[in-house]
Amino acid sequence: MKVLHSVHAADFKSYDTALIRERFLIDQIVSKDTVNCVYTHYDRMIVGAANPVTEQLELGNYFNLKAEYFLERREIGIINVAGDGLVTADDKSFNLKKFDCIYIGKGVKRVAFTSKKSETPAVFYFLSAPAHTSYPVRLMTMEEAAKVDAGSLATANLRTINKYIHEDGIKSCQLVMGLTTLQPGSVWNTMPAHTHDRRMEAYFYFDLPAGQKIMHFMGEGHETRLITLNNYEAVVSPPWSIHSGCGTHNYNFIWGMAGENMDYTDMDPISITDLR
Ligand SMILES: O=C(O)C(=O)C[C@H](O)C(=O)CO
Ligand SMILES: [Zn+2]
Question: Which residues does the annotation say bind Zn(2+) (predicted)?
Fold first, then answer.
């Protein structure tokens, strides 16, 4: 499993494009009939995806975990971003349509991914963090997720933030996870921007049409840098970094965090005019 080490904010200032991409970009995680995982040293969050097309895929074990099985000391949140699929947790299977989320807690020995139809395969994006106790498996549809409407058309950031795994939603040890959808004509997410030194964050962009691009801004608010992303690519955001994207077309993205607390609203906002 690929490993991403943590970066100090002061060092980041001197990074060029290639180094920013090497340290923060998570690409090539969606590939046919494969489960791909990247181990980050930001709160030990694992970022991954499974794209079962012709066969059922299992979440394997990895040397990095030094565990008997993947969820021996971990929890996982999974969101389907494509065709209908099934997630199996030990002996129970759950149907996941596009935008549905499932949480699987510590202690579940077998996790498997299946697509309903190979012509329209599922793409399961997942985040996994260390867990101290076991919370029950729970499925949540997008309709059931807590919703916050944000932004406006005038500022090209009209969007809906859907919260699945959070303090008042699906119970977890430290995972907080959700999905934001942008209206046509709206291209900015997370603007005004914020940081939250208490939690790392990862963004996974999807539903971005071919030929389009995401400009994702990171760095301290007074020292921002740009990383460009394609559809089905993710980027990790250190606790000192803003995480805000602008697309050349509207898109959707999954955000997820782990760290000191689970309070979604615990953010340190930066005013737009203070960004540099
Ligand atoms: O569009 C947004 O704004 C977001 O989705 C923000 C993320 O949820 C986030 O950064 C949570 O800390
Ligand atoms: Zn955030």
Answer: 194, 196, 201, 243
